[in-house]
Write a structure and sequence with these properties.
The complex is a heterodimer. Chain A is built from 18 helices and eight strands. Chain A is α/β, with parallel strands linked by helices. In chain A, strands 5-4-3-6-7-8 form a six-stranded parallel beta sheet. In chain A, strands 1-2 form a two-stranded antiparallel ribbon. The longest helix of chain A is centred in the N-terminal third of the chain and has 29 residues, at 124-152. Chain A is elongated and about 75 Å long. By secondary structure, chain B is mainly α. Chain B has four helices and no strands. Chain B has helices spanning 5-25, 32-43, 47-54, 65-92. Classes of the chains: A alpha/beta, B mainly alpha. Chains A and B meet through helix 1, helix 2, helix 3, helix 4 and helix 8 of A and helix 1, helix 2, helix 3 and helix 4 of B.
Chain lengths: 464, 102
Amino acid sequence: MSANLSAILYLISGVLFILALRGLSSPETSRQGNLFGIIGMVIAITVTFLSVGNFTTGFIYVLLFLAIGGSIGAFIAYRIPMTAMPELVAGFHSLVGLAAVFVAISAFINPEAFNLGTPGNIKLASLIEMAIGAAVGAITFSGSVIAFLKLQGIMSGAPITFKGQHLLNALILISIIILTIYLCLTQSSNLFWILIGVSFLIGFLIIIPIGGADMPVVISMLNSYSGWAAAGIGFTLENTALIITGALVGSSGAILSYIMCKGMNRSFFNVILGGFGATEQSSTSQNKEQKPVKSGNADDAAFLMKNASSVIIVPGYGMAVAQAQHALREMVDTLKKNDIKVSYAIHPVAGRMPGHMNVLLAEANVPYDEVFELEEINNDFANADVAFVIGANDVTNPVAKTDPQSPIYGMPVLDVEKCKSVLFVKRSLSPGYAGIDNDLFYKENTLMLFADAKKMTEDITKNL
Amino acid sequence: MEIDPFIFRLSIFILTIFVGYYVVWSVTPSLHTPLMSVTNAISSVIIVGAIIAALSANEGVIFSSSSIFGFLAIILAAVNIFGGFLVTQRMLAMYKKKKKDK
């Protein structure tokens, strides 16, 4: 196949990838978008086979490994529970990162295959691109592995910090730049291996100080990195499909990180530097311990909701942990039978990744036109009778609007306290991730329901 | 004077960042999780590099030091491609409108 024809076909597959993302602007067009993405991928792979044109034994092995990887992927995709999506995405990011590293290594060992020169005499531009692709890929890999371990609970979600951490990270980043420069000057393969090793190390060090509830930012950021790694390799291989995809994914991840940071009213660097909430919790927790709290049982909650005409549900990560989404939908069905209007309010950083709650509700067959974003629904709280907070905490804390001393001051929150009454399902009074007390617990119109989210929801349904 | 082909690729890269910027802002927030899984799937187009690497060995040789890395990358990327697109499809199939409610 001629080089020009394959370049055009790669361009087409790049355009199809753009359309795949475009489709996600609404749920109706999204499935078609996914199909475009698949077609784009099939084109890219087919063109590569035809342009290499080497249909010998090696080709059989390529198909074999493709089939092995594909079956593993398909198996995971069908088996994974929806609550585990954040872990899955983090795991997949690590694979993209590692694949980028492997391709860069292969190109470094055997540059002739990619028309990049000969070993020890690789074109300067290619070498720089290769080094960037490998370094970013390695950071993506080790960072995603840590994110995966934290999300999976194998590693504690608490931030791990130590003295001189930022200095160490800064030194390592500088050494990566210096290594890249020396690599270009000397073409030494030892430097290339060291560069990759150091990049693995920095990916690991960047993610360990970041706590569990900041995972939405981390996952988006790693998503972005995996894109830039792909783009770096795309430049090395002079492949348009890869460059287009890399740029798309890179900017997509960056935008998501930005949206997540805005949802927490924190700067990107603040999140990355980590250790949130560890220092500031002492001041607020002292003066509130004495305050009375009203607590109730499923019967009380059912009574309140039965007499309401509109109910707003505020789900959070706790709902995912308790796997309460199906029980919740059953409760809502019962409410709807009693002609009570129900809607769902989703905070941008609810859950452990962007859109986490929406997927869980969709899984429980909640129609997506009943689910609203923060800006869309925030004014409705004042007119609603009952707010049902299930597994959310910090995102409902009115302190963010009233107390300039609070670490979460300025963070956009759901105006849950404006509801006539608030039902708050929680295991205990313990503060949320930010380490601060939630004023909502002590409001007169709040009824705390201390129980497991799933069990409580089921009990309420029985009592309705 | 001739323009280095690198500049063309750089142009594509920069322009696509802008395309990505506008396309991603138009994605509805409720589909942000599928967005991540589908971007993950498409970034595995890095498999084209892996295929070239895997088939790069000299004639008669299948597994050379460089092609082994290619084969490994093929497995990783293939997990992602199939896993990413299928899980996205599974998620998107769950997003339903109110009308068809039972």
